[in-house]
Every structure is written in structure tokens, then in C-alpha cells.
Amino acid sequence: SSKGLVTVPYQVPSALHTFCAYTIRAHQRDRLRDCLTKKGVGTRVYYPLPLHLQEVYARLGYKKGDLPVSEKACQEVISLPMYPELKEEQIEFVVREIKNFFSLA
Known about the structure:
By secondary structure, the protein is α+β, with helices and mostly antiparallel strands. The protein is built from 3 helices and 3 strands.
């Protein structure tokens, strides 16, 4: 079962989101990304390194392990295709491939 292996963005029931990126959290993110790439689905990892470990903030003195939740999130986030011309069947294809990945994992 893929239950719990993917976390999608939360939307407040009384509001609509205008996603500029659709970023999910996924266990085995790198393997999932490789699988989607092989199927022709472009993905991005916009934040591979948490802010506290980026060179620009080195002067603050943080080290790996200081902010474990941020570090874990950076290992799990993956942005899926999101643009106005995206067709319903393309969205369904991406969802199906993600489900297939986790059913085989």
C-alpha cells in the first residue's frame, strides 16, 4: 500500500490555492524522481539543502543534525509538473506513475 508514503500540500477547505509549484513529500524521493524521469515526467528539487546548511549562512554556526526536521524535508520534497497548459490526462498519468512506483517499492 502507498498510504503514508506521499504527503500532498494541505489546502484550507474554504480557499483555493494558486500553485506556482506542486511540491509533495515522498519516501524514496530520489528513486521516485528517477522513475518519473524515465517515464518522461519532469520534476524538480528546488531546495536540496536546508537553509541552515547553505554556505551563505555558515557564519551562523549550524551543522548537520541541528535541525533534523528541515533536513528530512529537504530529502523528501519533489516538485511535480505544474503549469496552465497541463492537461487532465497528463495529471492522471503522473498520479498513476507515482502509485505504480509505490506499489512496486
